[in-house]
Amino acid sequence: MKKRILCAVLSLALFLCLLPGTVIKAAPTEEIKKKIEEPENLYAQSAVLIDADSGRILFAKNGQEERPMASTTKIMTCILALELGNMEEKAVASAQAAAQPEVKLGVKEGQEFYLKDLLYSLMLESHNDTAVVIAEHISGSTEKFAEKMNEKAEKLGCNHTYFITPNGLDAQDEIGIHHTTAEDLAVIMKYCIMDSPKAEEFLAITQTKEYQFSDCSGNGNYHCSNHNAFLNMMDGAISGKTGFTADAGYCYVGALSDGERTFIVALLACGWPNNKGYKWSDTRKLMTYGLENYQYRDVWKEIEESKVVVENGVTEDSFPGEKLEIETRVKGKSCMLLLREDEQVEVTCEMPDKLKAPVQKGNVVGKVIYTLGNEKVAEYEIVTDETIAERSFSWSCSFIFQNYFLNEDRKIKINQ
Which residues fall in a coiled-coil region (predicted)? Predict the structure, then answer.
């Protein structure tokens, strides 16, 4: 009797564990309860810090406010040129490109440059005329290139971003102004350094300290110095782009890698002249906050393998009316997340009480969801571990013939 009661209790516990919406979470210890102070007194009117691996926002101040972003725009121009262009192609400067305002390379109408050289001019010195040459070479016009910029932003989920120019100069059309948000800008940088097939080339360009080139005819001697001072400010700095216009103020987006951790900071409206250094102060403060407070933890919760009833199912040894159950398992063995000490992950199991035959081995029948607050941070499939066929009329006829007329032992068992 005691064994039966114990089995019933264990079965009930496992059943409750696997009910849809069931939450499993560990009680926080006293060590974890200590309060983590977030960055304060930032100069930027909009700022975010994200985990470059998952894209999760670790800190935000007005992260979804739409603002002009100045030359941080050029990270999108650069990545599109890398993905759509050939670095050895020759790009011809137009009259429109030659007429761009400072900061500029000083191209002349009809002058030819290799696309590769123009990308260093774009990202190191932030030349506005170079951006136009690149855009016109890739798409035929700055308007067509802006369409590609907006298409890419939409694919990345940047729904609060609108590009008009390839260089980030303040602009407005019938739809609105040239703008983004700090969150969207960080997402675009994540794509440039982590997800794009040209991420390695993007990083190589943005990490270059000095670069020299001539035009395709060998005329001129152009020298570019990287204006991203953050590369020399903190160990692990790997990329970044500055920006400034009268409407946007000082802007910045940058990335830092420390072992397995990579952080991205995006700042908009971070002061106006004479406060050029505010962006560096804010970037250091946010990166330091990330480095000091976020570590990877394996938050994997073991979910016991369980059985699910399969209706109308049959196996080689089953009998009509026999209750059949199928084994399931969770696809996964670890769940590494970048977390603060005081952040607690909740685990929810979602799986039906019954399945309908036929069921194939490996069928997805549920999921285990890891959430942090209201945000889903990981998900793992629950799959079947065996195959069960469907009981059909032909199977029933075959069963009766094989087991009632031909197999005396099973005939006796059935009659019993």
Answer: none
Active site residues: 71, 74, 126
Judge whether 104 is annotated as a binding position.
no
Q: What are phi and psi of 203, to 5 degrees?
A: -65, -40
Q: Which of 238, 265, 293 is the endpoint of a domain? A: 293
| Residues 255 and 193: beta-carbon distance below 8 Å | yes
* Residue 163 backbone dihedrals phi, psi, to 5 degrees: -100, 135
CATH classification at residue 58 = 3.40.710.10
186 has a pLDDT exceeding 60: yes
Residue pair 104/224 in contact (Cβ under 8 Å)? The answer is no
pLDDT, one tens digit per residue, over 244-276 is: 999 999 999 999 999 999 999 999 999 999 999
Are 299 and 337 within 8 A, CB to CB?
yes
For residue range 361-411, list pLDDT tens digits in order.
Answer: 999 999 999 999 889 999 999 998 888 887 765 555 655 556 655 555 554
Domain end position, chosen among 293, 318, 341: 293
Whether residue 180 is found in the same domain as residue 308: no
Listed in sequence order, the residues at least 6 apart from 144 whose beta carbon sits closer than 8 Å to its beta carbon are: none
26 in a domain, yes or no? no
